[in-house]
């Protein structure tokens, strides 16, 4: 980032810190979200363009008590200066917002859907905090072939102006799968991992519930060099 972007990034971060109440009122107000005597935490995982948000919304409809959907993209929209094409500038602010909303939901026994790639650095901490609270914890890994997922990110950029660079896409495509497998290995029965496989037309092709490793069902692995050629 250049100096101007760095300045905007820091301003957004500080703004989110100072406006925690506004953030909570907008996305997780106890007036709109009821506590649950058996709250659940769901983590979405998968590359950009895989269709995670659509799946998250379908899952949310199945809850008795409305879950808080924590989405970094929605938090970015909450920040002044965000225009979609500068998403990377607001990553620090979005991460802080996720932390604030996650803390609030845990403290108030609200069910959570954390909608993201699961490629981020704090995934272990977030899963562990829900596990330690005795919550039911599930992870939904949504897979779409990389060419189709990359194509959809470009279509979305043209419509919403939300830019995902090839570098970010590649990192998320690889790390989301690695982290999901590692989460299941580390937490064992404390975490249920499910797999949703989509085809090149974005249609759901297969569901696999309560699996132990994604690689048992998706044999294809792509190198960084192969993904660069998309």
UniProtKB/TrEMBL annotation:
UniProt organism field: Candidatus Wolfebacteria bacterium RIFOXYB1_FULL_54_12
Keyword set includes Nucleotide-binding: yes
Keyword ATP-binding: yes
Coiled-coil regions listed in the entry: none
One example GO MF annotation: ATP binding
Transmembrane feature ranges: none
Keywords from the named record: ATP-binding, Nucleotide-binding
A UniProt-annotated Pfam family: Zeta_toxin
InterPro entries, sorted: P-loop_NTPase (IPR027417), Zeta_toxin_domain (IPR010488)
Lineage: Bacteria, Candidatus Wolfeibacteriota
Protein name: Zeta toxin domain-containing protein
Zeta toxin domain residues: 29-202
